[in-house]
Design brief:
InterPro entries: AB_hydrolase, AB_hydrolase_1, AB_hydrolase_fold. GO terms for molecular function: hydrolase activity. This protein is an alpha/beta fold. The protein folds into 2 domains: 186 residues, Rossmann fold; 58 residues. Helix 4 packs antiparallel against helix 5 and helix 4 packs antiparallel against helix 8. 46% of the residues are buried.
Length: 263
């Protein structure tokens, strides 16, 4: 069942709720929708009330005005209020960036976990994140979502053959449906460096995870974040990549979210 909440700027944010127990909000990364949490949500729902949502401008969620990171933080604040005024938050990729930004800005987050927040100063094939974002925005301004999606994937390090293969998969049209929001993901990334001073403001327990088989950037990003966030825990999941197995990720995250209950 699709539910909605109104964000501070009037945008409608669509979400689904499953399970019972303390609230957990799941935030997806680039190209994701609330259905993208389908692998994790049932596992979390065994112990938690799970909220998965369409980030602003995607599928059933609207966007009332120009994009800003602050508006996405407000969207999350609206969901936390619906969830009872406090929640644990899990974010994947750029969803992890958003989760950490929200925690740094003091939202009522009990615990925050992020899987491979993609901080990197050298996106594949580009001299900077700014150049990468400009290429994507140029394609979108020209009305070419496929070119924007390809540019995004090239910046993540995917080669031409891999991108061509992805474009032939059944879910490619769904990716193009939300490709106009790719600049939002790069806005969260900033210049690609970890915003150390901002991350130092995070005052809640924080779990940072990366896949042992991911590129070097993933471990470096987590290490830099862990150095900045007071008391942050970092975990390397051997055999996992950026698209990790939910059955491997979920137990680690759930144990972390339930640590207060075990005391």
């Amino acid at each position: 069942m699709t539910l909605t909440v109104t964000s501070a700027d009037g945008s409608t944010i669509a979400y689904e709720k499953t399970g019972t127990g303390p609230a957990v909000i799941v935030i997806g990364g680039a190209f994701s929708t609330r259905q993208s949490a389908g692998g994790l949500a049932p596992l979390f729902a065994a112990h938690f009330s799970v909220y998965a949502y369409d980030r602003r401008g995607r599928v059933d969620s609207t966007q009332a005005g120009p994009y800003a990171v602050e508006r996405e933080v407000e969207d999350l604040a609206a969901l936390i209020e619906v969830a009872g005024g406090s929640a644990c938050v899990f974010g994947h990729s750029s969803g992890g960036l958003l989760a950490l930004e929200a925690a740094a800005r003091g939202l009522p987050i009990a615990r925050v976990a992020a899987y491979e927040p993609p901080y990197t100063e050298t996106p594949g094939g580009y001299r900077s994140v700014q150049e990468w974002r400009a290429d994507i925005e140029g394609a979108l301004e020209a009305g070419d979502r496929a070119a924007a999606a390809r540019s995004f994937m090239r910046g993540t390090g995917a080669d031409a053959a891999s991108i061509d293969a992805m474009a032939n998969l059944p879910w490619w049209p769904g990716m193009l449906e939300v490709a106009h929001t790719l600049p939002h993901d790069l806005a969260l990334l900033g210049d690609g460096t970890v915003p150390v001073e901002r991350m130092r403001r995070i005052a809640v327990p924080t779990l940072l995870i990366y896949g042992g088989d991911s590129g070097d950037w993933a471990g470096k990003a987590v290490e830099a974040l862990a150095s900045a966030i007071p008391g942050a825990k970092q975990v390397a999941m051997q055999g996992q990549t950026h698209n990790a197995d939910p059955a491997t990720v979920a137990p680690e995250v759930m144990d972390f979210f339930r640590e207060d209950d075990a005391r």
